[in-house]
Design goal:
heterodimer, A: mainly alpha, two-stranded antiparallel ribbon, 2 strands, disordered C terminus, B: mainly alpha, MetI-like fold, two-stranded antiparallel sheet
């Protein structure tokens, strides 16, 4: 090997090393970003636990200008809107996934899939705007709510926003059910309908649970829609009629109030505190969902 | 009841539910198209707003959204594609790799408003960028990473193993194989991922609330450290913050935003299906 070729090989191996190192750094950057997000939320949010007594923080009144930082109505607000949204989205999502995977003729699939992708692409502020101008007046008029901006209005739109996630994850779950299960059921004389509901859906239930969790994570973190259509009244939504009354979520509170607070004030720290709660909630939901994904992969023998 | 009758009723029910899912989507798009179309004019798209934004156009908001999307692309494409290459081509299945996957799942799940808080804390205040296009683009870029990485990784994974072994057998290094063979083969899938990520960035409001968005600016941004108006925030402003706003201006803004985002969505779908049809392996 002459020296020129030698040089070239050495140059190649150097660039190779440099590029590999760069790619490795980029690969790990996502971990860095999660840590950074966590760190800065803590940095700006933790002081509130020292500035405000715990009794106040978990109290029932959120009036920051008067020094009341009770997060209970906000946490319950997020919870109620999310739960109602999932209750609406779960049957719709699972039924649509079953329809697309098991029943629909191919032309119907060709219409359904792009429509659902379109739904996933519509910005939340556009849906919020639509909810404000079209759906809220209808809720007011036909359902007898004193105002159209209610838990129900918000949850209804959130349900549709969670649908693309729920449908696509549930579809994957149905897809992962081995063909032999279906064949066995059909061979024993079950109808297609019986096969779907007694065999395929039960076999896919862990995947469907993941779909619901991810949809829930989507709903709990949604901000603009909720801020525009739920009316933003910080009240405890536990009475039976609260479905048709305004409510205020954690996300909407941050979005509405952060623009007006002084940096470093107690209120500012309190809003970051809400951010910490949201971060942990979504982290937990995604961890649970991811765990069951990993579990499914490990049980590889079945499929 | 006859079980075949049950089956027929069941299928009818499923069809009905699917219609309940699909029809509202069509309605939303149709209503915004029809009502927004009344506001459409060259003036609306190309002129500055005036009279407290109740007249004129939305030009600065359109420019702002394009600038933010471009800034986001500048940051998220290299990091996203690099991260994807690491995950798909280099990473072995160790606990560290699992940490990365968990981080990506987690990033995908963090609420958009929390990204806004983070951007405010790190970029705007700690790094003293102020509310600026830079701060907003960086915030949006981190938010789009999980979308880009998960879609692009899929595209790298479907390139058959033989492509890598053949490249290596001809004396190519690992990086040469990736650059000359794997990346070109996976290119359409990567583009799809990038488009899906960027369309999310273009449509998001919450992350830019405290990091860039200006309520109203009489001029276009002059530098990357300026604030800017943007379409999603402008829609929020004209529909909730300005009393007496003419309805067609609101629908017009919604239409421009929707058209921008959905055309990126269609482009992503077209690239993907074209690629699937043309693929020879």
């Amino acid at each position: 090997m002459n020296s020129r070729e030698d040089l070239r090989t050495r140059w190649l191996s150097w660039t190779e090393l440099a590029i590999e190192a760069l790619i490795r750094v980029l690969g790990f950057s996502t971990v860095g970003f999660v840590l950074l997000i966590f760190l800065f939320l803590l940095k700006e949010g933790v002081p509130v636990f020292f500035e405000v007594p715990l009794g106040n923080l978990f109290g029932t009144r959120w009036y920051p200008t008067f020094g009341y930082f009770g997060t209970t109505p906000l946490i319950l607000g997020s919870a109620v809107v999310t739960v109602v949204a999932v209750v609406i989205a779960l049957p719709l999502g699972v039924a649509t996934a079953v329809f697309v995977r098991e029943v629909a003729p191919s032309w119907a699939r060709e219409i359904l899939k792009p429509t659902i992708e379109t739904l996933a692409g519509i910005p939340s502020v556009v849906l919020g705007f639509f909810g404000m101008t079209i759906i809220a007046p209808m809720v007011h008029q036909y359902l007898g709510a004193p105002t159209g901006l209610t838990v129900f209005t918000g949850a209804l739109i959130l349900a549709y926003m969670a649908l693309p996630t729920i449908i696509s994850v549930a579809e994957d779950a149905l897809d992962a059910v081995p063909k032999s299960y279906r064949d066995a059921a059909l061979a024993m004389g079950a109808t297609q309908w019986q096969t779907i509901w007694r065999v395929v859906v039960p076999a896919a239930r862990s995947g469907i649970a993941v779909a619901v969790m991810l949809g829930m994570g989507r709903a709990i973190g949604e901000t603009m829609t909720v801020m525009m259509v739920t009316g933003n009244a910080a009240r405890i939504p536990l009475s039976l009629d609260s479905l048709f009354k305004p409510v205020r979520t954690m996300t909407a509170t941050i979005a509405a109030e952060m623009g007006e607070v002084a940096q470093g004030s107690v209120h500012y720290h309190a809003l970051f505190g809400l951010g910490i709660i949201l971060f942990f909630l979504t982290f937990l939901i995604n961890l649970l969902a991811a765990r069951s994904i990993f579990k499914k992969q490990r049980r590889g023998g079945l499929r | 009841m006859n079980r075949y009758l049950v089956q027929r009723l069941g299928f009818a029910l499923l069809t009905g539910v699917s219609l309940v899912v699909v029809i509202p989507v069509v309605l939303v798009v149709a209503v915004i198209l029809l009502k927004g179309f009344e506001a459409m004019s060259w003036v609306f798209i190309s002129s500055m707003p005036h009279d407290g934004m109740k007249a004129g156009g939305i030009f600065p908001a359109i420019v702002g959204t394009l600038l933010l999307t471009f800034g986001t692309a500048l940051v998220s494409i290299p990091i996203g594609v690099g991260g994807t290459i690491y995950l798909a081509e280099y990473a072995r299945d160790t606990w560290l790799t699992r940490c990365i996957r968990l981080a990506i799942v987690n990033l995908a799940g963090i609420p958009s408003i929390v990204y806004g808080l983070f951007g405010l804390g790190l970029f705007v205040l700690f790094l003293k960028m102020g509310t600026s296009i830079v701060a907003g683009s960086l915030t949006l870029a981190i938010m789009t990473l999980p979308v880009i990485i998960s879609t692009a990784e899929e595209a790298l994974r479907v390139v058959p193993m033989e492509f890598r072994t053949v490249s290596a057998s001809l004396g190519g290094t690992r990086w040469q194989g990736i650059r000359n063979i794997i990346l070109p083969q996976a290119f359409p899938g990567i583009i799809t991922g990038i488009l899906l990520g960027l369309l999310r960035a273009a449509g998001e409001t919450a992350p830019i609330l405290f990091t860039v968005a200006a309520f109203y600016l009489p001029r276009l941004p002059q530098s990357p450290f300026d604030q800017t108006m943007s379409l999603p925030y402008h829609l929020f402003v004209v529909s909730t913050q300005v009393p007496g706003m003419p309805e067609e201006m609101q629908y017009g803004t919604a239409l421009v935003l929707l058209a921008l985002v959905l055309s990126m969505n269609v482009a992503a779908t077209v690239v993907r299906s074209y690629f699937r049809r043309r693929r020879q392996w």
